[in-house]
What does this fold into?
Amino acid sequence: MEAWNRLRDIFQDNKHFRAVTFEYDFTHVNMADFSNVSAYCQHLKSLVDQLKNVGSPVANDCLVLQLVSSLTEPYQGVATLIRQCDPLPQFYQARSMLTLEEAGHAKKAAQSSSVALVARSSEGPPDVPENSSSNRPTNGGKRNHNRYQQWRTCRSWWPAGRRQQSRQHWRQR
It folds into this structure.
């Protein structure tokens, strides 16, 4: 029993120091240090739980305000919406709003990259200069066929009729 009392006393002695450390970490966390919104929110929630364990609970409003205060630039619109709510939303609701915004950013980035791919592929297949060594028939014409296969997969979104015309065009070369 005496050992447990000593352990409790050691824990109680460090309680205030740990509370100060956790509060500092909580107020200085920044989303830019994390890979995504979920990791950022999970870290904040972990710090709040640790503060609660050492007797310094954090109110939901403080948690939500800290959450939105250190968001990166792409999330400032959602941060403004959250700040303007009266009363402030619960932490889990604010986290949901941010993860939805993150999903929207990811979808927009994916669409942008596919638009760039389509724009690149709409230029047509790369032309090979006539004096190029790749025009030599040392490989039985497989080089141009492979280039056609690569180009065709990029153009798979074409309607069937256009794909057929494209195949005929490449077979004539």
Remarks:
- Residues 2-106 form one domain.
- Residues 91-121 form the longest helix (31 residues).
- The two ends are 90 Å apart (CA to CA).
